[in-house]
Amino acid sequence: MRFRLPRPQGMHIELEQTPGRIETFYGKSGGADMTTVPNPEVIRNYFANVKIELLAARYSERLREDWGRNGIRTSYNRLYFFIGGEGWLNIDGELYYPRPGQMFILPAEAPLTFATVSANSFNKHWCHFQAKVGDFHLFKLLKLPYCIQVADMDYMKRLFERLEQAYRESGDIAAPLKFKSIFLEILTYYVEHTPPQSVRLSPSPVNNREYQILKYIEEHLGESLTLERLASAFNYNPNYFIRYFKSLFHISPNQYIVKTRIEKAKKLLLSSDCSLERISETVGMERVYFSKVFKQLTTFSPSEYRSKNNMKLYKV
């Protein structure tokens, strides 16, 4: 049922002080209980493995005056880009009066209430989408601000128009690729215009365990990291640990350890004058094996990598 929800009362003074957003009487700050992650590897992993599915994408001009919902929860995410009009949104206890040029992510399963406040209802581009990492909703694992201000409205309008066209042409064989490329450009803009300190992991048990596993590997990278040692450190059976690790990171524990060791070695090659023997020891690899794997992953030997990249630094 669609209905008119009354304008929340007693908020207009705070609205003038904080354009576009009001902290509500629910008392939620949106960030007080989040887990700050010093190492962004977990967040990068989420972005690398997120699966996107478009459910709908349209432009709505002058929404119905009785547009609104009260306390709903949906199984999909909503992305709103406001062009004009007035109304309000309450996202998990945070109240907003959207303004032109503001873009909102309304996460799946978050309690939502929204409505118009007058005949001057919203004009907005919008899409509904799924964003999952494995079986988990991306925005239940990762916390971003619900709103950003778009500086270049024409640029964002063009992106949404292309997104809406890709949705209309869903019968086109390349439509899924078009949608994903356009949507990821929009999502990239959203993340890049979010203050880094406000991109955080949610305090879910999955995130806590995931971070602890990566932290353990990082802290013991120079030691022998066998599957049995890792599984034992977290009280898992080795076979189960392999499946669990791959469900989280889409890579085996051994592949991740090797990749992390080579990445650390690359940094040491460029930031220090340590010998190759010292570097291979620091990252927990035997010297000959280290050189072999390094070349397989980078196409350069460690010495070539150091020489080529140091030359680039000198030229700059």
TrEMBL record:
SMART domains: HTH_ARAC. It comes from Paenibacillus ginsengarvi. GO terms for molecular function: DNA-binding transcription factor activity; sequence-specific DNA binding. PANTHER family: ARAC-FAMILY TRANSCRIPTIONAL REGULATOR, HTH-TYPE TRANSCRIPTIONAL ACTIVATOR RHAS. This is AraC family transcriptional regulator. The lineage of its organism: Bacteria, Bacillati, Bacillota, Bacilli, Bacillales. Transmembrane segments: none annotated. Residues 211-308 form the HTH araC/xylS-type domain. The keyword Transcription applies.
